[in-house]
Amino acid sequence: MSLIQELKRRNVFRVGVLYLVASWLLLQLTDVLSSLLSVPESAGSIVVMLLMLGFIPVLIFAWVYEMTPKGLKREVDIDRSQSLTPDTGKKINTLTTVLLVLAIAGLVADRLIPESSVDTDVAAVAAVEPVEAPLPVDDHSIAVLPFADLSQNQDQQYFTDGLTEELLNLLVRVDELRVASRTSSFAYRGSTLGVPEISKALNVGHILEGSVRKDGDRIRITAQLIEAGSDRHLWSENFDREFVDIFAIQDEIANAIVRALTGKLGMGGEKAIAVELDPSFARAWAGLAAVVELLLSFRAYDELLAGARLSTAMQASR
Fold it and tell me: CA 209 to CA 222: how far, in whole Å?
């Protein structure tokens, strides 16, 4: 008789299959118990190692011993004419089938029941926690982004930040205009996000951005007003000045930009930036004096009228 036939006769193959199916079912039970009890994470690995170590001894046991009505006996001590290995093989087949059904049922339950419970939990949370509606965007709102330094030496950030600060300081004085805070606006310095994304994050209807370029003693300031919803330019202007008194330039440009913006936004910005609002506000008088001096250089005003206004501004600033 060949070795294969003898292995079959002694039910060694059937015992091996039974052992594998039983091991699979045991691993499923270990996984369930691990989730319910406080056991180390290595418990599963230990069980797998023990089952692997026990596989060969079980096969050897099936080869050496045989089940008889009087219990286990060594196979060599049994008369083959009285061997019950066929009946034992049928019992092993039945037990293997039962364990296999249990293992498959456990696998199906493990795949389906958790998903159903998760879906139920998600549905319950969605029913309990209503989705918050986005805040409506106020058309009379604006964020001033830090002006970009486009100078060749990239050394004008002090001036650009100062100009941005002046714009914020003047815009917050405009009635009915909501201005995003400096901290929120400056967080987008150098950002690659588009205007729609930034305006949505800041919940504003308009964005003011610009740049500064310095060449020798000349400086060019570009400002742009953008409507956030359509990403459309509402206004854009260049300001070319001699780089002499940076504070005067900042005041002058900031006032000019604010006047233009308030006109585009349909609000009366003249009240907010006029010196009549606060006669003791020295920087406003200084800005007025700078504008008058600039107008004198261009001879845009009558000399006597301009001189009178310049004298008034200088007296008020003392």
Answer: 8
CA distance 221 to 115: 60
Q: What is the rounded distance in angstroms from the CA atom of residue 50 to the CA atom of residue 265?
A: 78
- The stretch 198-222 carries a mean pLDDT of 88
In order of 48, 102, 221, 237, 299, the CA distances from 45 in angstroms are: 5, 22, 69, 72, 92
**Cβ-contact 147, 250 below 8 angstroms:** no
Q: What are residue 245's phi and psi, to 5 degrees? A: -110, 100
Do residues 94 and 17 touch, judged by C-beta distance below 8 A? no
Give residue 76's identity as a one-letter amino acid code: V
> 3-state DSSP call for residue 212?
strand
Residues with Cβ within 8 Å of 261's Cβ and at least 6 positions away in sequence, in order, are 142, 171, 208, 225, 235, 269
In terms of Cα–Cα distance, which of 78, 71, 56 is closest to 9? 78
pLDDT band at 249 (very low <50, low <70, confident <90, very high): confident
Whether this prediction's pTM lies above 0.70 is answered by: no
246 in Cβ contact with 259 (< 8 Å): no
Distance CA 28, CA 31 (A): 5
Q: Answer for the pair 63, 12: CB distance below 8 angstroms, yes or no.
A: yes
Q: Report which of residues 259 and 114 the model is more confident about.
A: 259
- Please give the average per-residue pLDDT across 151-177, as a whole number: 84
Quote the tokens at residue 65. 């011993």
Pairs from 219-228 (Cβ < 8 Å, separation ≥ 24): 219/156, 219/159, 219/243, 219/249, 221/147, 221/163, 221/253, 223/147, 223/253, 223/257, 225/260, 225/261, 225/264, 226/195, 228/137, 228/195, 228/196, 228/199, 228/200, 228/204
pLDDT in tens, 8-25: 777 788 888 888 888 887
Tens digits of residue pLDDT in 296-315: 544 444 444 445 444 554 55
Exposed, middle or buried: residue 256 (CB in 10 Å: 0-12, 13-18, 19+)? middle
**What is d(CA 273, CA 281) in angstroms, rounded to the nearest whole number?**
10
Chain length of the chain: 318
